[in-house]
Protein 1
Amino acid sequence: MLLSSSLHICRHAKDGKYRSDCEAVVQKVDETQTDVQIHISSGALGQGSFGIVYPGTFKGRPVAVKVYRDTDKKGPTVVKEVCVLCRPLIRKHPNIVELLTVYEYTPRDKSCPTEFWLVLELCEGGTLRDLLRSGEEWSPLGAFHSDGIG
């Protein structure tokens, strides 16, 4: 599969010093498995050009699940997003959504494409696009102050 075979690009930066645990993040799953720790609910939270985000639970925790379909065209985007979210400085940053795991889902019906499910921390308040279009006055510095950071 594209994602699991391409994650080696996350292991070393250009200087060769950066290492990531991205490969450990990817889990393969199919319709026959019963021990999967994720449940995806119906009713999308949002949709973009690359996928649909659904509410779900992972190990009993509320999450957002970004589902990428048609991965032949979008595979490089999925890999890039996973690699960025796996970087140690980003992975636990308080102001960046946390990537919990990635599932590579293969449907039993081989005519259906493989999907990649990015399991992300669920953030309240809608999408970033919603915030920016709301007309509400907002600034990054104000967000820092409201969080007691600045």
Note: The mean pLDDT is 71.
Protein 2
Amino acid sequence: MTLELESDRLVIAALATLLVMLGAMMLGGSLGQILFSYTIIAFFGMYVLLGVKSTAERHGWRPFLITVVTVVGILAVVFSALWHFHHLNPTYTDPVYWLGFPRATAIVVYALWMPPALVLMFAYPYLFDDYIWDSKEIEKFDEMERTRATASATGGDD
């Protein structure tokens, strides 16, 4: 198996990101933790783009890049807030509560989990018919359903 620079750019970028993450873990300390946090965000973005690569090559990268840049931007801001509040009170001796949780937990629950999930939750159905589901896949799905219905009607195993 060989990597081709032009067609495997995302795979090569993901491998480079993993090497940076490994270096950040070996570096340790605050700098290593911050570098690892932002590198994992980039890795998540590349993972999503790698998943939509064949679809994006048929239709264009623009809608997927907008979605990923939005999610990565949200994650970068939220991780910055987490690091900022961590450095204000690293021992958590007197935690400040937001919406019923300690501040860091509230940021994770309300800012780290929800906005990216909502962006992806609304982007996926919006992009599905135009970009993800194509006529070949519809034909495959219909054929599988016909085969399953025939097997079910004749008493065959599913």
Note: Residues 22 and 71 are 23 Å apart (CA to CA).
Protein 3
Amino acid sequence: MNEPERPGGSGRSADGDPRADDTPRASQPRASAAAGRGGLGRGLDALIRRTGAGVQEVEIERIVPNPAQPRQFIDPEALEELAASVRKHGILQPVIVARSGAGYALIAGERRWRAAQLAGLPAVPAIVRETSPRAALEIALVENLQRADLTPLEEAAAYRDLTEAHGLTQEQVALQVGRSRVAVTNRLRLLSLPERARSLLADGSVTEGHARALLGCPDPTMVDVLAVRVVAERLSVRQTEELVRRATAVEARGRGSAPQAAQASSPVLEEELQRALGTRVEITRSRRGGRLVIHYYSDEQLEGIVEAILGAGQA
């Protein structure tokens, strides 16, 4: 039984270009990581060796989840829907497991396995395979890519595991999962996003295209500030690229102007305030003084800014 796919998709190309749908949304569906999924890597059968003579029933309680599962989030509502289908039709597509001590380790089919648990089934159809830890990770990764189940960050984390824990080069990872080396490199770069920007990418508030544009800014604090602005102003990827270009140029001019110690330039002061307050700040100078504008995008953020200012005054 093919599991129901999540509605919609990211509109990315096979190399992960998200510009076909580049406007951030507060509740954007999880991005598809599997455009062109029909030719991913060498295929599941090429990654594993069959040890059994076919499908067998395995007790659910004897199966443990795969600790290397790339997918970190399973939609509870979608899982309940799948469980309802399992109650009615059963599990028609076997899960893939490997022997582990007295039981089995799940390699592929975690949603089916969990849905079967919810449906109250005592056992699931399974194919027992012999595989290495690295191959198990590859299998889980390819299956999730084929089903469009991974977010860009989950996919990037799986690539990192293959390179760091198993010694593969980016070129080898690309070959194994059927991606271009550039696509793998772009995914891995996402892991360098600072915390706030990464969170916005994880929940779909910004797309991978926005994230890659934000990575053009060398200052992590500024990246977070710009990411919040992208969401608040619903900027497209191209608008985000322009925003990053302007912010980076202003910062470079400010640092290159060599201001006197007693009077730092506005860009440098803006950067310091933005780092302290965690939001966008604008300073406009004039002959008789100037103007300081502090942006906020929610009442909660405003309260945090006020607390930060008052706290600094009392220090």
Note: Residues 195-314 form one domain.
Protein 4
Amino acid sequence: MKRKNLTFIEEELYHLKSEQPLPVMVFIYGGSFRSGEARRESYGPDYFMHDDIVLVTFNYRVCALGFLSFADPALKIPAMLGSKIKYSP
């Protein structure tokens, strides 16, 4: 069975009632690359929904499984280079 290379894009567009720009809050959870998540239950928008604020959260790789590599030429899966990323202060 041949797989197609698909890209998924999810966009949610809302028609705002306000003509004025709204403040945007971006939340990046901590956890020292060991644990964390941006779940609705933990960091949901419920508090901000009453005050016209746009909340942006996202998930990123954490822990050993976040940098897991299946680099195998037979499988044609590229290596995860997350562990080789250099961070500068």
Note: The mean pLDDT is 64.
